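Working notes for the structural subgroup meeting. M.R. asked for a predicted model of this chain before we commit to crystallization trials. I am recording the input and output together here so anyone reviewing the notebook later can reproduce the run.

Input as submitted:
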Amino acid sequence: MPATPRNIKDLIVKYGKIAFIVHISISTLTFLAFFALLNAGVDLPSLLAKVGYKLEVSNNHSLAATAIAAFVAQKLTSPPRILLTISITPFIAKWFGYRDNQDNAQNQPHTD
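Returned structure, recorded in token form:
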């Protein structure tokens, strides 16, 4: 069984577009979730403070301020998102029928 990539660069080298799409999808969903929570009035700064992140949000409730706060919260959660991307990309790639180049090379007959 091939080794699991240890960082995002190795993942993108190995899985290409699939890894990129998975990472962008997770990032987008994270941003939208934070935006929806902030827009609904959830006290996101206190929730993030419980896990060690500090986010200060003003009382300005404009969409732009909410979007900026959601973007900052999304950036603060980058390490867990990258770990999630590294963890699930091989499964998603397999589900879409991705064949690793090393697997293809092993299945080729030797013509020495």
